[in-house]
Amino acid sequence: MGNLNPIPEPLTVLIADDEPHIRHLVGTKLKMAGFTVLVASNGQDCLNLAREHRPDLIVTDFQMPVLSGFEMSQALAAAPETASIPVILLTARGHKLSEDDLSTTSIQMIIDKPFGPTDLINRVKGMLETNQAA
Q: Which CATH number belongs to the domain containing residue 74 in this structure?
């Protein structure tokens, strides 16, 4: 028998947004692209799911209840078991974060709302390909 290459597991993306329509839109597009999707409606739930499931990437809103996307990203970066999970931050208000702020987080990309779902999916794929190659 020849070498059997294992079928790769689908990559997991965790979406955190307090707006149900954003969670639904992004989640549906990611599922259609072949990703496993986890969903949270606030930063604390996102942090808990990230600790439990260790997703390959997180897409989070900046402004959310309980913990903001920024605060959640800081908590991820501070824990060795979640520090390597990359984060894409979505922001509706064009928040600018300084390099000092970003250095305390796992945020690797900031995307302003409104965004095109296809563009977001392409950015997710690109970031995951880059991180897997590293």
A: 3.40.50.2300
The number of distinct structural domains making up the chain is: 1
pLDDT in tens, 46-97: 999 999 999 999 999 999 999 999 999 999 999 999 999 999 999 876 667 7
Q: In what side-by-side order are the strands of the sheet with 57-61?
A: 36-40, 12-16, 57-61, 87-91, 107-112
Structure tokens at 12: 């997991």
Number of residues that make up the chain: 134
Q: How far apart are CA 77 and CA 106, in angstroms?
A: 5
Cβ-contact 65, 40 below 8 angstroms: no
Residue 19 located in a structural domain: yes
**Structural domain contains residue 3:** no
Q: What is the pLDDT of residues 107-132, one digit of tens each?
A: 999 898 888 989 999 999 999 888 77
9: tokens are: 């597991």
Q: Please state the pTM of the whole predicted model.
A: 0.89
